[in-house]
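=== RUN LOG ===
request id: a7f3
mode: sequence -> structure
chains: 1
length: 256
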Amino acid sequence: MKEIWWETKGEGDRHLVLLHGWGLNAQVWDCIVPQLRSQFTLHLVDLPGYGRSGGFPAMSLQEMAQTVLAQAPQRAVWLGWSLGGLVASQIALTAPSRVSALVTVASSPCFSAQEAWPGIKPEVLAGFQHQLSEDFQRTVERFLALQTLGTETARQDARRLKEAVLSLPMPGAEVLNGGLEILKTADLRTVLTSLQMPFLRLYGHLDGLVPRKIVPLLDSLWPQSKSVIFPKAAHAPFISHPDAFCEALAAINHPA
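=== RESULT ===
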């Protein structure tokens, strides 16, 4: 089986696997690695087809989860941002014994807006899919700009995301389109009610892609999980508010 790009850093006594979002790569975590490496042994991953994990076709959510799991430590805390949150959640469902805790960041079990469920309008995601075929670099840049809208450091945060994308090979249009298809169709709301491991959900109050209105809905649906909303953050709270983000994560490392 072809392997994805994987790097291990840190001296902590617990493993933490970090999964990035759509269009990006593991470089996005550079801003918090220095703070986390004393608490965790960090596993930085480029998802199949992204960054340094080139040569993979578009995959289903299940295929992506299995590919990542194949190289993972036997037991770890799994943290997934946005699309990566769906992958980490699928791993928790597929191999719960391998997941000591699940952390989702600015992620939704169902990204598409539905009746009585806030999310991204399906036509917006379809529009991104259409634009990919015409100019996928510009489409990715537009998507990145949406992720930092409204924060006090929006321009600087968007630049950081863009630098992470441009520092490595861009994913192909097929892989990007496959990722959008997962965002458009995945719905893990019901199946995730069965999770037994600690489950922490982190959100940005200003997030335009994962509306904060889903938080109380999931608090009710998933009473076994805990949610934290960062008041001045948008879709990338670990970039705009790294200290508060790492502080929230420390609770997973040292539960009360």
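=== NOTES ===
The longest helix spans residues 122-148.
The beta strands are 6-9, 14-19, 40-45, 76-81, 99-105, 199-204, 226-230.
=== END ===
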